[in-house]
Write a structure and sequence with these properties.
Radius of gyration: 18 Å
Helix content: 25-40%
Number of helices: 8
Distance between the termini: 37 Å
Mean pLDDT: 88
Order of helices and strands: HHHHEEEHEEEEHEHH
Structural class: alpha+beta
Low-confidence stretches: none
CATH topology of one domain: Ribosomal Protein S5, domain 2
CATH architecture of one domain: 2-Layer Sandwich
CATH class of one domain: Alpha Beta
Number of strands: 8
Strand order of the largest sheet: 1-2-3-4
Strand content: 25-35%
Largest sheet: 4 strands, antiparallel
């Protein structure tokens, strides 16, 4: 564990100790009525506090995807702020992406990390490649497509041992989601990193749109 990861873990621990829930979901978690992320999503209640995710996923990790300087022209002159894109995940089936703006980089990253926790979703993993068919959750179970702005991505299942055939930004997001093998094709303005990252996130979120035969058994 790196120094930055230890600092983030200590910061999350101190925030949880001082956390006073303001929502019904937060109070249910603190009372022990909801103890897992599966129960949380089955409840259908929207996540409105980032501490909820920290409480149920203590091993969650953060990765900064992109930081840009954005400028806005006002009557008083130019207003400059930083915009950060941050991805969070536990590397075992959960991923979230968020953005935040602030006058300082650190504050923008913290806002983006909190926003990413509010957007966290489960990722259905499997072995959808005809070349493998091992039955292990190392890839996606079927082909999915994600869109955001002028960017479109197609995520294809890969055989075990292939690795992530994608860009570095995509590898970071897939790694946090716990996906190890796949192919990915991208179209459009992929240099626009925020749209590119959200398109990948949209594709991973759609893995739960289709009910597979394994879900029938459940």
């Amino acid at each position: 564990m790196s120094r930055q990861q230890r600092e983030d873990r200590d910061r999350r621990t101190s925030n949880l100790e001082a956390w006073v829930p303001k929502t019904r979901l937060g109070k249910m978690i603190q009372e022990g009525k909801i103890t897992t992320m599966e129960d949380l999503f089955l409840s259908g209640i929207k996540i409105s506090e980032p501490q909820i995710v920290d409480s149920l996923l203590p091993d969650i990790q953060e990765e900064v995807i992109n930081v840009n300087l954005v400028q806005k022209q006002t009557d008083a002159g130019e207003n400059s702020r930083f915009k950060a894109i941050v991805a969070v995940g536990n590397r075992d089936g959960y991923i979230g992406i968020g953005n935040g703006k602030a006058s300082q980089v650190r504050n923008a990253i913290e806002k983006a990390a909190a926003n990413a926790r509010l957007n966290i979703v489960p990722v259905k993993r499997g072995c959808g490649s005809w070349e493998c068919n091992c039955g292990q959750p190392h890839s996606v179970p079927f082909q999915v497509e994600g869109k955001c702005g002028g960017v479109r991505v197609v995520i294809l299942p890969g055989p075990r041992g292939l690795g992530l055939v994608s860009s570095e930004v995509a590898k970071t997001i897939f790694g946090l989601a716990g996906v190890k093998d796949l192919w990915m094709r991208s179209f459009g303005s992929t240099r626009t990193v925020p749209s590119y990252a959200y398109a990948i996130f949209d594709g991973l979120r759609k893995t739960y749109n289709l009910i597979t035969q394994a879900d029938w058994v459940k």
